[in-house]
Amino acid sequence: MKTKPLFRFVISPRWFSCIALIACCISLIAADRPNIVLIFADDLGWQEPAYAGSDYCETPNLDQLAREGMVFRHAYASAGNCQPSRACMLSGQYTARHGVYAVGSTKRGPVGLMRMLPVDNRGNLPPKTVTLGESMKAAGYATGFFGKCHMKDSKTGKSEHAGFDVIKVSQHGLNSNDPEDPKAIFSITAAACEFIEANKERPFFAYIPHYAVHSKLQGRADTLNHFKQKPLGEKGHGDPLFGACLADLDTGIGTVLKKLADLGLEKNTLVLFTSDNGGTAVSQEPLRGKKGCYYEGGIREPMIVRWPGVVKAGSTCDVPVINVDFYPTFLAVAGTQPPKSSPLDGENLLPLFRGESKLKRSNIFWHFPGYLDGPVPRGRDPVFRTRPVTVMRKGDWKIHLYQEEWLLDGGREKVASNNAVELYNLADDPGERTNLAKKNTAKRDELLDDLLAWMERVPAPLPAQANPKWNADASKSLPAKKKKKGKKK
Q1: CA Rg, the chain, in Å?
Q2: pTM
Q3: How many percent of the chain have pLDDT more than 70?
């Protein structure tokens, strides 16, 4: 008795044709998916590019990008300084989930002036985290990382590099000895352009985190000479070295944008530009504070999105967005689903890109259960940029919950008298000058309920013990912050 082959169809020419057709369709679908270029400045404040308000700095390429795309006027970093902000963006999670709160330590400053023992800090992402790079690679994108890396691989944690096929110029703190590339702007740019060229026939994700304009400020000699001859801007911007560093960064960004145009990729590429935290080189007024604090000057960022055919040129958006939103947004652009094993805290921004005026969520959050030394302009404290604090923005309202007073001075029962809560209406008071916590108690309690519910739901780790080395007498004798006159640096 003869039996029929079970798999005769495999060798049929008709099936070969079908398989080839399916493969071709998959290839065409992949080729149609938008490319994504994420350009990340370091320590660039919210109004330091010319398009954002500076009357001293020169950023013609960013200005052009703003004219061609959408400017987000209420864009935020998820943390007040470098490492946690990057950890949030690349994990899609708030600090309370991954535990990267600061650079190095959450116990930065005089220990005797800390009322509580801070929550320990992580130096990298938990191993179980599925990074943005890993998700984009799994979606079929070529992935490239060009620039600053702040978190390294270890036995207990994961680097920012996870998921990237190509990794170049990754030394943290690099200051080049090349006078024509003192901040590595142009070597970073060249590596990114080489990657774009090599992957022009397939969808790619290029992440370009620059070292500029983080100190040490550096610029090309010709650029620096130009700014040395330029008069001080009326808004207080007038540091030639800062102007040169930012101008060189802008030139590098322009080179990337030109590469996209030259390759005919401009229309099918989403470009997002922003920064990792508040500025340091110049005053952030009218916003309060600078890098390292959770007042607006420490977390409000410049942000532009350009995506021809989707984002309306010359448009603006005033909906609050935060850098944990990039992860779900890029996955939506790539046509893939978020990882099930690694929850995301952000929201897909595509509705805003398409001109809609709101998102599903109502609140965004920040959580910092530690201490960061170095006072800031109009800060709360004469010693620390911030003490342990959890913050939430809801609509135009923003609440700060200071954990020392909350945990040690009576909690909810004494919130009206223990200075644990600060409440601001950013529509009327973007500089956070008038604390309304004791005046508008209904709004204070509404936001406090939301904030406490979020802290319990995550859950958000809090300092658990009073500091046995706290010097109460020294703390009482701290001088009040004085208002500085003259030029601020």
Answers
A1: 24
A2: 0.91
A3: 90
The owner of tokens 């071709």 is 24
* SS3 state of residue 109: coil
Report yes or no: 377 and 289 within 8 Å, Cβ to Cβ: yes
C-alpha dihedral over 478, 481, 486, 489, to 10 degrees? 80
In the block, tokens 């530690």 appear at 370
CATH superfamily of 33-359: Alkaline Phosphatase, subunit A (3.40.720.10)
With H, G, I as helix, E, B as strand and everything else as coil, classify residue 325. helix
- Only one residue has tokens 């967005």, namely 321
Q: What is the mean pLDDT of residues 415-425?
A: 94
* Cα maximum dimension of the chain: 103
Q: Looking at this protein, which amino acid is placed at residue 389? A: V
What phi and psi values does residue 336 have, to the nearest 5 degrees?
A: -130, 165
Residue pLDDT, tens place only, 47-94? 999 999 999 999 999 999 999 999 999 999 999 999 999 999 999 999
Same topology between domain 33-359 and domain 365-476: no
Q: How far is C-alpha 209 from the geometric centre of its chain's CA atoms?
A: 10
Element (H, E) at 225: helix 221-228
Tokens of 64: 């052009």
Residue 407 CA to residue 402 CA, distance in Å, equals 9
Neighbours of 66 (CB within 10 A): 25
Cα-Cα-Cα-Cα dihedral of 468, 474, 480, 485, to 10°? Answer: -100
Residue ranges of domains in the chain:
33-359, 365-476
Question: Helices 240-262 and 185-198 meet at what angle, rounded to 10?
Answer: 10
326-334 helix and 82-91 helix, angle to the nearest 10 degrees: 30
Structure tokens, 57: 């700095």
Say how far apart CA 51 and CA 55 lie, in whole Å.
9
CA-based nearest residue to 241, from 281, 181, 184:
281
Q: Give residue 372's Cα distance to chain centre.
A: 18
The CA–CA distances, whole Å, from 129 to 97, 187, 345 equal: 10, 30, 13
Pure H helices in 49-181: 60-68, 82-91, 95-98, 132-138
pLDDT of residue 170: 72
Strand partners, 389: 368, 402
Strands 35-41 and 269-275, bridge-based pairing:
parallel
The two beta strands, 303-306 and 70-72, are antiparallel
In CATH, the architecture of 365-476 is 2-Layer Sandwich (3.30)
Lookup: tokens for 32: 């149609």
Residues in the chain, total: 489
